[in-house]
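Appendix B. One record, verbatim.
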Amino acid sequence: MSGEVWQVITTTADEQDAKKLAQAALEKRLAACVQIGGPVESSYWWNGRIESAREFVCVFKTTSAAYPKLEKLLLELHPYEEPEIVATPAVAVSSGYSKWIAAQLKQKA
C-alpha cells in the first residue's frame, strides 16, 4: 500500500460545491471515496465574531501519500476564503478496505 489510510474533512456552504470537490478529487484519483452529508449547523469564530451557517460535510478517503495533492486541489477549488481541511490518520482499517483505497488511487482515470 502506498501510505496509510487518512480521512480528510472539509465543509461547504452548499451541496453543489461539495459535489464539485468530490468529483474533482475522484477524477484525479486523490480519493477513493467521498461521503457528503448535511446540511449540518456550524458555529465558529470568524473576523472576531461568532457566526453560524448551514454547511455540507465532505469526508474524503485517501492515503498519506496522496494527501498533499488532495489538499492543494481543495485549496484551489474551495469557495471559502479559509476552508476547513482536517486530515486524520486512521488508527485501524480493515485490510481489504485499505487495499481497495490504495488500488483506487493507483489506477489511471
